[in-house]
Design a protein that fits this description.
This protein is α/β, with parallel strands linked by helices and about 240 residues long. It has one domain: Rossmann fold (3-Layer(aba) Sandwich). Helix content is about 45%, strand content about 15%. The chain contains eight helices and seven strands, in the order βαββαβαβααβαααβ. The chain has a seven-stranded parallel sheet, sandwiched between helices. Strand 1, helix 1 and strand 2 form a beta-alpha-beta unit. Helix 2 runs parallel beside helix 3. The radius of gyration is 17 Å and the shape is globular. About 40% of the residues are buried.
């Protein structure tokens, strides 16, 4: 049996890196994409800007030529540009939706070429609890993450007959470099809003992604899977 290949966008840090480490530990050849900086040691990596179809295509072509067709696709790349709605510019809205939603579409669309040939595969989109419950100051981000659900379910219906699944993982508040810089009072307020009373670790998200990427999840598709400590409560 050949080693499965996974491609994780934005896999050079944070949640993306934790996912890459989880998949690698499970025996998958985890290849990461990055836009700037340097990739972490121990992983094969390609440059990709998800806001450019040309960059996405070039990265996939490089991976397919060097390693083979990736059958596990984790669309994780994205960013925030928070502001209250009255102060949010058109560009703030468009840029976040372009990277988080349209970027995931560009990646999944290009991946589909190889998955259809393989007649199997996993499309895994990293969403957010705010895509379901909303968040003040994050109209653009919430809209982009909410859109992933409809998109993933459409992929699931279109590609299911070929053995390809499409699901969304929705993290809640996560321990990251950004949240670590919050004042202790604000961290306590956020944690208090979560039924489990704490932030999520990147590794806890990665574990769920690892399951969805595995053969054990072969009959799960079109699902929104929360990893939010109960914050979304089934939304």
């Amino acid at each position: 049996m050949t080693q499965p290949i996974a491609l994780i966008t934005g896999g050079n840090r944070g949640i993306g890196l934790a996912i890459a480490q989880e998949l690698k530990a499970s025996g998958v050849n985890a290849i990461i994409t990055y836009r700037t900086g340097n990739p972490p040691e121990g992983f094969d990596a390609v440059k990709m800007d998800v806001t450019s179809s040309e960059s996405v295509d070039a990265a996939f072509t490089e991976v397919e030529t060097k390693y083979g067709v990736p059958e596990i696709i984790v669309a994780n790349a994205g960013f925030t540009r928070d502001a209250l709605v009255m102060r949010m510019s058109d560009q703030d809205f468009v840029d976040v939706v372009d990277a988080n939603l349209a970027g995931a579409f560009r990646v999944a669309r290009r991946a589909t070429r190889g998955l259809l040939k393989l007649k199997k595969g996993r499309l895994i989109f990293v969403g957010s609890v705010v895509g379901s419950v909303g968040s003040a100051g994050q109209v653009n981000y919430a809209a982009s993450k909410s859109g992933l659900v409809g998109m993933a379910r459409s992929f699931a219906r279109e590609l299911g007959s070929r053995g390809i699944t499409a699901n969304v993982i929705a993290p809640g508040f996560v321990e990251t470099d950004m949240t670590a810089e919050l004042e202790e009072k604000r961290r306590a307020e956020i944690a208090a809003s979560v039924p489990l009373g704490r932030f999520c670790s990147a590794e806890e998200i990665a574990t769920v992604v690892g399951f969805i990427a595995s053969p054990k999840a072969s009959y799960i598709t079109g699902a929104l899977i929360p990893v939010d400590g109960g914050l979304g409560m089934g939304h």
